[in-house]
Amino acid sequence: MATPDTQPTPFPAPTKSSDGLVLDNPTAVTCTSFSDKILLTVSQAGKLAHWVHVPLATTNADPMNPGMFHNHDTTNELLPMTHLTATTVLGGTKRDDEIVGQTLATTIGSAILMKQPQEERMLVLGLGLTGASGMGREGFDAVVGLVLECL
C-alpha cells in the first residue's frame, strides 16, 4: 500500500484526507470533525453508496455500569466493542455489503474510542467500496488502516 498523503484544513471544520490503494483500487478517505459528529467517507471510483452511523457516547453502553468502558477487558481489543451499534442510514440494499459496512463502522468507532475514550460524538461513515462483500480480510484491514491514517 502506498504511503497516504494527509492534508489538514482548518475551516469550516477540521478536515483531513488521505489517498491510498485497497486491493489495487484507488481509495480516497476524508474525515471532517464537527462539534457533534465525525464524518468519514471512504470512496472508490468517486462513489458513495452506503451510509452508516454509530453513536460513540459511552452513556449508550450500559446505564447500569457507567464506568464499564474505562475499565473494559483488554483481552479482545482487536475486536469491535460490543456496545457499539452501527445502523444503516442510506443505501445498504445489498445485504453482504451492508454487513461489511456496519462491521467497518463499529471497528472504526472502536479505534476512535481506543484513542479518545471520552469521545461522545456520532460517527457517520459514508462508503463507496467496489465489491465490498468480496474484499476479504486483506481489503478490510487496508480500509481500516487508511481510515486510521486520516483520523
UniProtKB/TrEMBL annotation:
Matches recorded under Gene3D superfamilies: 3.30.230.90
InterPro entries for the chain: Proteasome_assmbl_chp_3 (IPR018788), Psm_Assembly_Chaperone (IPR053720)
Pfam families named among the record's database cross-references: PAC3
GO biological process terms on file: proteasome assembly
Protein name: Proteasome assembly chaperone 3
Organism: Cladosporium halotolerans
Species lineage: Eukaryota, Fungi, Dikarya, Ascomycota, Pezizomycotina
